């Protein structure tokens, strides 16, 4: 597919929010996209719903406290096409004369950054249609005020979609979708879900180039059409915000139990022996807690590698413990910076270790010198990337890397295949990022095989609970151009502890971490 010509519908003030600016810069700097024209509505009325007093006040206060800014963008070097559109209640329709001016540009895509709901022939002007963001779950929240109603309805996640517009409201063809953990502060929640827009746009372009149609389109909308919040809605929000502030202050004053992770061991498979029959082997204490266990059997040695988080220093190190010899334990000497999430794997008969090392912005791979205590830094991959929870696993005799990335939400999930002969080479999956959904992005332990099936543990978080429980997904297919999973079951510790966020299985034994 040749370079895609893109036009943007934007008002004559050329003021952009941050996510719009990010997308414009991405298009301009891409050698496969061209920002061809700015389509400016002039002498055109826009429907702006009246906001109730309390919601206006909330907006004003939060904008001041959180320093809301509007960016100016220099469009002077770009072609500008002025047009008028007729407003009918909530919709805009462009007349035939203006329609022809835009049609003659022969655009591939039109991005709508301004105007209300579009209808009429403009929807067919560009080769691949008019694309528009909806910062909300189109199955639950259609209408206005994105990021607000998720909070007062106590939704765990806030979603966004990029859709190809049709005549329905927020019911067009979904091109790609993403989600974040809902933040209880409205302005923060809106900005965070908007910040994922660039990744959703990039994913939509990749899907277009690879002839991939987003699979989750057909749905019946059963919820109401949301409008500007009423004063009652705003009072509910204020109550939710007060509750959040009280929780935050309480956690600052009192010790938070979710920071006391301990590691448990079970000598049978989790499919046979339940969690409550497991034994605590590495408890937390006043100085540290232990999490992210990885179980590895080698030559009769049963070794657990894990993160030991030093509470006073606020830094994690990688430690090990030999379950077959209680006198063998210690800390690994690795590069500086916080370390967590150890994974052991083989490549061409050599043994390697990866860890999460976000402060170093890369994937660090260490080679074993003397197992389990001595390792040397072999090389760094994906330099500049913020990598969380890196898994290296074997699937059908191929070695894969799976990790999440992004801000604290880690909404983006990536897959790479290791070169068969050269461990320093990674081959990017054609669908990367393979997911933008925070509900499935974060790993909760190694991919493991049970019987003929491969399973991927996924961590489930919400704003108040890190590592609340684990969802287990079965991998249905994986190769360089496809990736498909299906939900298998939840793994919860409600009756055993408080939260569980990591599971490791090896040789039909397993370890996991629990906070109590």
Question: Brief description of this entry?
Answer:
This protein is α+β, with helices and mostly antiparallel strands and 516 residues long. The chain is built from eight helices and 34 strands. It has two domains: 246 residues, Rossmann fold, CATH 3.40.50.170; 260 residues, Tachylectin-2, Chain A.
Protein model, in words:
This protein has 516 residues and is α+β, with helices and mostly antiparallel strands. The chain folds into 2 domains: 4-249, Formyl transferase, N-terminal domain (Rossmann fold, 3-Layer(aba) Sandwich); 256-515, Glycosyl hydrolase domain, family 43 (Tachylectin-2, Chain A). 17% of the residues lie in helices and 41% in strands. The chain contains 8 helices and 34 strands. Strands 5-3-1-8-10-12-13 form a 7-stranded mixed sheet, with helices on both faces. A 4-stranded antiparallel sheet has the order 16-15-34-33, with no helix packed on it. A 4-stranded antiparallel sheet has the order 17-18-19-20, with no helix packed on it. A hairpin with a 6-residue loop joins strand 26 and strand 27 (412-418).
Notable features of this structure?
Rossmann fold; Tachylectin-2, Chain A; 2 domains; 17% helix; 516 residues; alpha+beta; four-stranded antiparallel β-sheet
Give the helix proportion (percent range). 10-25%
Major sheet: 7 strands, mixed
pLDDT < 50 stretches = none
Q: What would you say the CATH architecture of the largest domain is?
A: 5 Propeller
Quick one: CATH superfamily of the largest domain?
Glycosyl hydrolase domain, family 43
């Amino acid at each position: 597919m040749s370079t895609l010509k893109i036009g943007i519908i934007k008002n004559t003030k050329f003021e952009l929010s941050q996510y719009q600016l990010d997308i414009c810069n991405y298009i301009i700097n891409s050698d496969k996209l061209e920002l061809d024209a700015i389509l400016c509505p002039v002498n055109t009325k826009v429907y702006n719903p009246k906001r109730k007093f309390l919601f206006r006040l909330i907006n004003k206060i939060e904008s001041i406290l959180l320093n809301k800014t509007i960016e100016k963008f220099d469009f002077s070097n770009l072609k500008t096409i002025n047009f008028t559109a007729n407003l009918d209640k909530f919709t805009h329709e462009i007349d035939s004369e203006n329609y022809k001016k835009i049609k003659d540009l022969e655009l591939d895509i039109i991005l709508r950054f301004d105007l209300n709901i579009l209808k009429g022939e403009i929807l067919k002007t560009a080769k691949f249609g008019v694309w528009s963001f909806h910062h909300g779950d189109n199955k639950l929240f259609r209408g206005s005020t994105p990021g607000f109603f998720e909070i007062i309805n106590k939704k765990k996640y806030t979603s966004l979609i990029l859709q190809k517009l049709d005549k329905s409201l927020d019911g067009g063809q979904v091109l790609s979708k993403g989600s974040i953990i809902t933040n209880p502060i409205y302005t923060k929640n809106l900005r965070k879900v908007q910040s994922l827009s660039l990744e959703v746009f990039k994913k939509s372009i990749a899907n277009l180039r690879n002839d991939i149609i987003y699979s989750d389109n057909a749905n019946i909308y059963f919820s109401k059409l949301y409008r500007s919040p009423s004063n009652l809605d705003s009072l509910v929000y204020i109550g939710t915000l007060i509750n959040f502030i009280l929780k935050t202050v309480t956690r600052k004053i009192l010790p938070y139990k979710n920071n006391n992770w301990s590691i448990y061991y079970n000598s049978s498979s989790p499919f046979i022996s339940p969690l409550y029959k497991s034994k605590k082997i590495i408890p937390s204490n006043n100085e540290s807690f232990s999490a992210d266990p990885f179980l590895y059997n080698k030559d009769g040695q049963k070794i657990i590698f894990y993160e030991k988080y030093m509470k006073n220093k606020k830094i994690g190190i990688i430690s090990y413990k030999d379950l077959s010899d209680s006198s063998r334990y210690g800390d690994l000497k690795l590069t500086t910076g916080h370390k967590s999430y150890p994974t052991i794997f083989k490549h061409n008969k050599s043994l390697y270790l990866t860890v999460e090392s976000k402060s170093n912005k890369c994937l660090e791979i260490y080679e074993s010198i003397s197992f389990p205590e001595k390792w040397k830094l072999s090389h760094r991959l994906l330099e500049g990337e913020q990598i969380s929870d890196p898994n290296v696993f074997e699937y059908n005799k191929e070695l894969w890397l799976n990790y999440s990335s992004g801000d604290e939400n880690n909404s983006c999930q990536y897959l790479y295949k290791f070169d068969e002969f050269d461990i320093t080479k990674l081959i990017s999956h054609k669908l990367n990022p393979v997911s933008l959904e925070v509900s499935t992005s974060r790993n909760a332990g190694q991919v493991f095989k049970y019987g003929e099936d491969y399973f991927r543990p996924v961590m489930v978080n919400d704003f108040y609970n890190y590592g609340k429980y684990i969802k287990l997904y079965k991998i249905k297919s994986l190769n360089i151009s496809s990736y498909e999973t299906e939900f298998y079951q939840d793994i919860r510790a409600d009756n055993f502890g408080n939260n569980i966020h990591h599971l490791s299985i090896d040789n039909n034994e397993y370890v996991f971490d629990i906070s109590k």
